[in-house]
Amino acid sequence: MSDPSATTQADAAAPSPAVSGPNGGTVPGEGRTPARKIVLGVLIVLLVVAIALLIAFFATARHWFALHTGILHGGPDQYYNFWSGFGSDLGEATLISAVGIGVYTGVRKVNCHTKGCWRIGHHVLEGTPYILCRHHHPGVPTSGASHEHILEQHRKYKEAKEAREARGLS
Ligand SMILES: [Zn+2]
Questions:
Q1: Which of 15, 53, 109, 137 would disulfide-bridge 132, Cβ 3.0–4.6 Å?
Q2: Which residues does residue 6 pair with via DSSP β-bridges, in sequence order?
C-alpha cells in the first residue's frame, strides 16, 4: 500500500468499467472471498470427522451422554433425573432460541441494506430496491437540521413544483 506506483496504477484503473460489476455496480454476494471458502471447507471436514468419530465410538458417546445428562443413576425411574435435571432446561432453551431467532429476523428485516450496517433503514434509495439508514443514504443529511432550515427546504420544493406545473400547463 505504501508503494506510490501501485497507488497511481490503482487510480488509473479505477474509472475503467472492468472494476465494476455487470450492472455497473457492485454485485451482492460477491463478498464470498476465497479465504471464506477455505474456512467453510475446513468446518465441513471437521464436521465429517466428528460424525465419523461419533459413529465409531457410539457406545462410549452414548454412555457419556447418558451419564452427564443424569439418565443413568437414581430416581424412581430411569429418566427421572434427566427430566428433573438437564431435561427441565429444554423448554427454557427452546424459548430463548425462539425469541433470539425472532429478534434476529426482525432486525435483519428492518435494518439498513448496506452490508454490515445495523442501523435502522428508513430511507428508500430511489431507483434501487435498497432501504438505507441516513448515514448511508446520499440524500439524507447526517447532522440535525433546525426547523427553519427544514421549512426553507420544503418551501423551495413547493416553489419548484409549482414552476414545473406552470410550465406543463402552458
Ligand atoms: Zn447503513
A1: 137
A2: none
**Gap from CA of 101 to ligand 1 centroid (Å):** 22
Rounded-to-10 torsion of CA 58, 86, 101, 48? -10
pLDDT tens, residue order, the chain (170 aa): 444 444 444 444 444 444 444 444 444 444 557 788 888 999 999 999 999 888 888 888 888 888 777 777 767 777 787 888 778 888 888 999 999 999 888 877 888 989 888 888 889 999 999 999 989 998 888 787 788 888 998 999 999 999 999 887 66
Ligand 1 centre to CA of 132 (Å) is 5
**Pair 128, 139: CB distance under 8 Å:** no
Which single residue is written with the C-alpha cell 439498513?
A: 112
- DSSP strand pairing (131-132 vs 123-124): antiparallel
How far does residue 137's CA lie from ligand 1's centre (Å)? 7
Q: Give the Å distance between the CA of 134 and the centre of ligand 1.
A: 7
CB atoms within 10 A of CB 133: 19
| 135 Cα to the center of ligand 1, angstroms | 6
The CA distance from 63 to 32, in Å, is 41
Query: Could you tell me the distance, in angstroms and rounded to a whole number, from the CA of residue 26 to the centre of ligand 1?
Result: 16
